[in-house]
């Protein structure tokens, strides 16, 4: 599923302005007035770091494509990884470099210039849906990986229970930002076309609770009867059923792990 027609690249990049970074993006992470607690981000990102350890044991070099302000990279660095990142937003890349002392470059996923076969792990969290050319970006990620390295990609799930419940009011369906919307099948296909193998779609991820699995709040129309009914379902039954929703492949997000072939 993709946006057509779409805004020009120049109009799309305007969305990632300094105002957006300071007044929308950082507050959404709990960062206000430039103040943050790294121990909070260590805890927040611990489930993903455990997943990486399971899929690629040991430490090494880790690249994040779409690093944002760099808080995941900082948590990975504090856990023993040698880290680097690329980020299209100049404001975000500068924050990661200047405030968090990280090796983050302002580059697009499609044009990043890291040396081939220089990383053991590449991660892309809620990034691929924003990209102009997802398969090319995955090919760049593949080129950056050493043989046997792994890529981990997360993205909204267009076949989620929430999308079926909320329909076109699901806020993920935002064509000015999300140029592509992936199902498990299309994400698997994109990874294989980019040269990856052994694709695994994670069906039980410790970092997702009830509202990360089935979130009725993420909607363009919170006052509709449809949304109210879904909110009632989640509030009464969410704790009971959210693990089953994950196992059925109906969670709000997809997490795919794939390998750079030997």
Report on the architecture of this protein.
The protein is an alpha/beta fold and 262 residues long. It has a single domain, classed as Vaccinia Virus protein VP39 (Rossmann fold, 3-Layer(aba) Sandwich). It contains ten helices and seven strands. Strands 3-2-1-4-5-7-6 form a seven-stranded mixed beta sheet, with helices on both faces. α5 links the parallel β2 and β3. The model has no long low-confidence stretch (mean pLDDT 95).
> How are strands sequenced across the largest beta sheet?
3-2-1-4-5-7-6
What is the mean pLDDT?
95
H/E series: HHHEHEHEEHEHHEHHE
Rg is 18 Å
Biggest beta sheet summary: 7 strands, mixed
Distance between the amino and carboxyl termini: 32 Å
CATH class: Alpha Beta
Q: How many strand elements? A: 7
Looking at the overall shape, the CATH architecture is 3-Layer(aba) Sandwich
What kind of assembly state do the chains in view correspond to?
single chain
Estimate the strand proportion. 15-25%
- Count of helical segments? 10
- State the domain count: 1
From the spread of the alpha carbons, the general shape counts as globular
CATH topology: Rossmann fold
Stretches where pLDDT is under 50 for at least 5 consecutive residues are none
CATH superfamily: Vaccinia Virus protein VP39
Q: Portion of residues in helices?
A: 40-55%
């Amino acid at each position: 599923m993709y946006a057509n027609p779409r805004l020009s690249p120049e109009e799309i990049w305007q969305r990632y302005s300094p105002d957006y970074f300071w007044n929308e993006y950082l507050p959404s992470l709990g960062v206000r007035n430039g103040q943050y607690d790294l121990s909070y981000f260590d805890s927040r990102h611990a489930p993903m770091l455990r997943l990486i350890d399971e899929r690629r044991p040991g430490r090494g070099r880790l690249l994040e494509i779409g690093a944002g302000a760099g808080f995941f990279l900082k948590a990975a660095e504090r856990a023993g990884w040698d880290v680097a990142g690329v980020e299209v937003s100049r404001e975000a890349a500068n924050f990661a470099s200047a405030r968090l002392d990280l090796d983050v470059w302002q580059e697009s996923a499609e044009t990043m210039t890291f040396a081939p076969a220089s990383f053991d792990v590449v991660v892309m969290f809620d990034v691929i849906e924003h990209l102009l050319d997802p398969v090319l970006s995955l090919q760049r990620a593949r080129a950056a990986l050493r043989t046997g390295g792994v890529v981990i990609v997360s993205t909204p799930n267009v076949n989620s229970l929430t999308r079926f419940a909320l329909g076109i009011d699901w806020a993920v369906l935002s064509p000015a930002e999300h140029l592509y919307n992936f199902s498990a099948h299309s994400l698997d296909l994109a990874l294989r076309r980019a040269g990856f193998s052994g694709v695994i779609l994670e069906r039980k991820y410790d970092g997702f609770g009830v509202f990360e699995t089935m979130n009725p709040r993420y909607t363009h129309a919170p006052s509709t009867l449809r949304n109210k009914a879904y909110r009632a379902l989640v509030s009464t039954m969410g704790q009971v059923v959210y693990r089953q929703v994950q196992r059925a492949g109906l969670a709000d997000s997809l997490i795919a792990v794939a390998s750079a072939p030997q």
